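Hello again, I could really use a second opinion on something today. For a while now I've been wondering how a particular protein folds. Please have a think about how the structure follows from the sequence. Here's the protein in full, and shout if anything looks odd to you:

***
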Amino acid sequence: MKQIGNYRWTICGLVFFATTVNYLDRNVISYLKPYLAEAFQWTPEQEVNDYANIELAFKLAYAVGMLYAGSFVDKMGSKLGYAIATGLWSIAAVAHAFAGGTSGFVIARIFLGVTEAGNFPAAIKAVAEWFPKKERALATGIFNSGTNIGAIIVPLSVPLIAETWGWQWAFILTGVIGFVWLFLWFIYYEIPAKQARLSKAEFDYIHSDREEPVTQEKVPWLKLLTFRQTWAFALGKFLTDPVWWFYLFWLPDFLMKEYHLSKTEIIWPSAMVYIIGSIGSIAGGWLPMNLINKGWATFKARKTSMLIYAFLVLPVLFSQYMGSINMWLAVLVIGIAASAHQAWSANIFTTVSDMFPKKATGSVTGIGGMFGGLGGILLTWLVQKNMFVYYTKIGQIQTGYFIMFCICGAAYLTAWVVMHFLVPKMKPVEL
């Protein structure tokens, strides 16, 4: 591989960095919930309800943002589209520090949700531009592991910052990291056809699939929605994205209430879940690439891998039982489920570039992201906002979490069946 060149992996590193910042900024608030409850004097019921409202505002804005983010990135191009999105969400992240209550956080989360919607359409488009099909799942797995790294950094840093300087500084210090990424992005990123640092051998390797050249032509949403492939991706995201958001926003609360941990004692259990999860993100991309190298058809390798990952989520059903033996067994089981999710995520994203030409990858990713956001909204509204409040009132929040883990365990196999029904065989879309 050395004779070809490896500049594409520099690009993958930049996208990984952006994804890390993206999840760092969205996850900060979940570890500041007890500090905010103290600052704004929330009752236990208010803490659950107001936090759910804040989370709901983010998800709703994220889903709406996805309506436009994909087509915006396709129109602006990956370089400028990614830069605008990151700059705006970094401003939104810092703005949380100036919120004076629930309403202020709702406004800040809406701004953050709309702007953070640009990350994955831009990331998937960049990978489609810079990698041949057989390497895209691995590249996607690597950059998608940034979601875990961001989630690891938060518990290791945010509670300590809040304890030392106050919760406002946690938002400010994490928010400014995005501007560091912007500086590096403008130095090192350009599409392959314009990148002077790229060798001809690597350029030819990137385009070895003989696909159409990258353009900034916009494909109408209504046309994309006529394809079963679009619905397979969208419904797969609708069913599984909410599970990851549940881990992201509610894991600290689960650990504190289930095991009576303090605000700082949740640091290492939380971090360990995402450390385990990062393994799945990279391994999830390696498995289909290995199968393809052994002669498997791309789509068969992708779907077989995703079925394996769907089964690996099932043990999360027993997380509370395992935790009754030892808390770290629950952490292990949830970590394996998070790892399987990341492996699944790396592959479901890559199905977009498997099935659609490059000029539509941003838009289709945006459609799927919107459906993932809608799934998160539905789960928050029906389950977390109502069910968690009810079980908190009667002092049985553990039952609420058990129901949630049942939903988490069933989501991936359900999504796989739906996707298989809609797209039983690989059929690339012609636009």
